[in-house]
Amino acid sequence: MGILLRIETNKGIILMDKTINENSVYTTKEVQDYLKVSKSTMKRLLKKGILRANKVGNQYRVLGREILSLISPQAEKKASDIYQKIKHKTKETIQGW
């Protein structure tokens, strides 16, 4: 069962006509197009673990459920919490220099 994407931003609500099936597998290019982000942003999402993917050969594949969890409101809180932890650890490390 697919889900119509509805993304709420500070600039309004974005409705995307494409559906994402939580059990389907997507290429990073497809995810990039769905999320309307640049290639560098896509790489950053993968590198920081914000968007989980599996490497198949030389390419990454993303499960639909990972995309859906990224655009959910809980994902924003999780990302904020992770950022705050990293910020705190960085401050502690710098103070120890």
Automatic annotation (TrEMBL):
UniProt-listed Pfam families: HTH_17
NCBIfam families: excise
Lineage: Bacteria, Candidatus Wildermuthiibacteriota
Gene Ontology MF annotations: DNA binding
Protein name per UniProt: Helix-turn-helix domain-containing protein
Domain of life of the native organism: Bacteria
Membrane spanning residue stretches: none
Residues of the Helix-turn-helix domain: 25-71
Database matches in InterPro entries: HTH_17, SinI_DNA-bd
